[in-house]
Design a protein that fits this description.
elongated; Fumarase C, Chain A, domain 2; 62% helix; two-stranded parallel ribbon; two-stranded antiparallel ribbon; Ribonucleotide Reductase Protein R1, domain 1; mainly alpha; 6 strands; 2 domains
C-alpha cells in the first residue's frame, strides 16, 4: 500500500484493527452457535460477546506473536486476557484457516462493495459525457494513422460498454468470493458441527464453502483478482486514448489544468497528461496480482501457507490501488476538456483522404474489379498524401475514371456523412 494512492475507506478494511475485529466476530459467532448446540454454556457465549467493543492492542498482539510465531494464537492469547476463564471455549474444533480464510473473504467482499460503487460512478460520468459529444465528429485512427471519421461520443460509449462488462465481472467475482469455512483441521467437520459453519456464515453474510479441505479453494481468489486486473486494463485503455489525444500535434482533448498547477519543473509552458499517465502505472500494479493469485491455486494436499504471504500483499494493495484508480479516472472524465474545433481541423488535415474507402466501394458498384478500384484510388491517395493536394481533385482528374463516375457523383460522395447515420442506433444498443 502506497499512502499517496490510497483512500481512507478502503484502507480501513485492511487495517489490523478491523482484521482483529472480524477475527473476534468469527470466533464469537462460532461460540454462539456452539451454545445453541449446548456444546458450551450460553453464559460463556454471552461473556465472550462482552468483548465486542474491545480496542485491540496491535502492538501487544505483535509482541505475543514474536514468542508464539503464530498470529491466531497470539490473537487468542490477547483475547483470553480480557475475557478470562470462558476464553477456553474460543476456537473449539477450529483451525486457523477457518478464521483467516473467512476473514480474508469478508475483507474482499467489503472491498469489492467499494469498487462496485466507484465503477458505477465512472459509468454515470462516461454516459453523461458520451451523450454530450454524441455527434461531435473526430478522426478515427488505426495503427495511430488517420482512418475514417467517428464521433468522440462514440469513443466514450465504447468505454462505457467495456466498463459495464467489468461491472458484471466484479459482481460475479464478489459472488464467487462470498464464502466462508468453519470445518476444522482438514475440512471434514471431525471436530466441529457443520451447524457452526452455517451459523457463522449466515451472521456474516457469507455462503458456506461446499468443500474446503482446510482452506477455501484459491481458484475463487484467482477469478477475483483477474476481474480486478481486467478492469485495470480497461482503465488504461481509456487513459492511453486521452494521452494520445492530448499530444501537442493532436490536442483534441486535455486533462483539466487547475489554477496554480505546474506542468514541468523546467518548462513553464507544459500542461502534461499526468493523471492519465499515472493511471497507466496504477493499472500495471493491479495486474501484477494476477500471476501470484493463479499460482496460489496449486497448494500442497489439504493446506500449505505459500499463498499466505502473497495474499497479505495483493489483497490490500490491489483493491486499494484499483479503488484509487477508478476514482481518479472518474474525475478525469468529469473534468475532461474537449476541443471540437481541433477535431475538425485534424479531420481535414489530409484533404479528404478519409473518403478513399467510400470511393473504392462506389467504383466497384460501377463495374470495376475491387483490385482495379483499389489501385486507382490508392494511386490518387498517394498524390494527396505526398503533395498535399485535394483528394477530390485528384479523383476528378484521373483519366482512367472518365466515363465511369461523374464529377457530380464524386462531389455527392464527399458531401455525405455516413459516419453519423447509425450513431443513434449504436447508442440505443449501449445505453438502453
Amino acid at each position: 500500500m502506497v499512502p499517496r494512492y490510497s483512500r481512507p475507506e478502503m484502507v480501513e478494511i485492511w487495517s489490523q484493527q478491523n482484521k482483529f475485529k472480524i477475527w473476534f466476530e468469527i470466533e464469537a459467532y462460532a461460540c454462539e452457535a456452539m451454545a445453541e448446540l449446548k456444546i458450551i454454556p450460553k453464559e460463556a457465549s454471552k461473556s465472550i460477546w462482552k468483548a465486542k467493543d474491545l480496542i485491540f492492542d496491535v502492538e501487544k498482539i505483535d509482541e505475543i506473536e514474536k514468542k508464539t510465531k503464530h498470529d491466531i494464537i497470539a490473537f487468542l492469547t490477547f483475547l483470553g486476557q480480557h475475557i478470562g476463564e470462558n476464553s477456553r471455549f474460543l476456537h473449539q474444533g477450529m483451525t486457523s484457516s477457518d478464521v483467516l480464510d473467512t476473514c480474508f473473504n469478508i475483507q474482499l467482499v467489503r472491498a469489492s462493495d467499494i469498487l462496485i460503487s466507484e465503477l458505477k460512478f465512472l459509468l454515470a460520468s462516461l454516459k453523461k459525457r458520451a451523450n454530450e459529444f454524441k455527434y461531435v465528429v473526430c478522426m478515427g485512427r488505426s495503427h495511430g494513422v488517420h482512418a475514417e471519421p467517428t464521433t468522440f461520443g462514440l469513443k466514450l460509449a465504447q468505454a462505457y460498454s467495456e466498463m459495464s462488462r467489468n461491472l458484471k465481472r466484479l459482481l460475479l467475482a464478489q459472488d464467487e468470493i462470498r464464502t466462508g469455512a468453519i470445518s476444522g483441521a482438514v475440512g471434514n467437520f471431525a471436530t466441529i458441527d457443520p451447524f457452526v459453519e452455517q451459523y457463522v456464515c449466515d451472521a456474516l453474510n457469507l455462503v458456506p464453502e461446499p468443500v474446503s479441505s482446510q482452506i477455501i479453494p484459491r481458484d475463487r481468489h484467482a477469478a477475483f483478482f483477474s476481474a480486478l486486473a481486467i478492469t485495470a486494463s480497461s482503465i488504461e485503455r481509456v487513459s492511453i486514448e486521452i494521452r494520445h489525444l492530448q499530444r501537442t500535434e493532436v490536442l483534441e482533448v486535455e486533462e483539466f489544468f487547475s489554477e496554480g498547477q505546474k506542468g514541468s519543473s523546467a518548462m513553464p509552458h507544459k500542461r502534461n497528461p499526468v493523471l492519465s499517465e499515472n493511471l497507466s502505472g496504477l493499472s500495471r500494479l493491479v495486474r501484477m496480482s494476477v500471476i501470484p493469485s493463479l499460482e496460489n491455486v496449486a497448494l500442497w494436499h489439504e493446506r500449505d501457507i505459500s499463498h499466505s504471504s502473497v495474499e497479505r500483499a495483493i489483497g490490500p494493495d490491489t483493491t486499494i490501488t484499483l479503488d484509487f484508480a477508478l476514482n481518479r479516472l472518474t474525475n478525469v472524465i468529469e473534468k475532461l476538456i474537449v476541443y471540437p474545433e481541433n477535431m475538425a481541423k485534424n479531420l481535414n488535415r489530409f484533404k479528404g483522404l478519409f473518403k478513399s474507402q467510400t470511393i473504392l466501394l462506389e467504383l466497384t458498384q460501377k463495374g470495376l474489379s475491387r483490385e482495379k478500384a483499389y489501385e486507382v484510388v490508392q494511386r490518387n491517395a498517394m498524390k494527396t498524401w505526398m503533395q498535399g493536394t485535394e483528394f477530390i481533385d485528384e479523383i476528378k482528374s484521373d483519366s482512367e475514371l472518365s466515363g465511369i463516375i461523374s464529377d457530380k457523383e464524386i462531389e455527392d460522395i464527399f458531401l455525405k456523412k455516413p459516419h453519423l447515420e447509425h450513431i443513434d442506433y449504436i447508442f440505443e444498443r449501449v445505453f438502453d
